[in-house]
Amino acid sequence: MQTMELAVLDWIQAYLHCSFLDAVLPWYTRLADHGELWIFLAILLVAARKRREGYSVACALLLDLFSCNLLLKPLIGRIRPFAVNTAVELLVPPPLDASFPSGHTAASFAAVFALKAAGSPLWKPALAAAVVMAFSRLYLYVHWPSDVLGGALLGAACGWLGAKLVSRLARRKNA
Description:
This protein is an all-alpha fold. It has one domain (2-87, 97-174). The protein has helices at 2-15, 19-30, 36-47, 51-76, 81-84, 103-117, 123-139, 145-174. Helix 4 packs across helix 8 (145-174). The radius of gyration is 17 Å and the shape is elongated. The mean pLDDT is 96.
């Protein structure tokens, strides 16, 4: 499996690598180093009186933080691809935590699915942003393809659950 995943990462390096992406993707991926992009979105939504959507994203991000960064990454402890293929020059500082699942991808898809489950039309542009974020993690050689897939699935679950919890709390409050 690792050989196949390395082949995917090496293919990206060989055929998609270019100066434009070298400049843009490190900057873009940093927007979610600690979930900042999605935290900012949640705050904006709450400030814009789109509270259900904003709280859904915030709840999803909290669920993602606990499940991804505090539980799964330390539990699984997967080595990152740049530690296996040391010939690759990283465009970003090497992440120090474990590789599986991709936290950037998980947070991004948590926001997307929270927005979708909360009925916000913003889920569509958020999905585009999440796909680019997921790709950036592969392009930058800091995650295996299965890390990104696992992050997307975990994020989707956290997003859906976050929105359902917020909806349930709102119903209880109004009852």
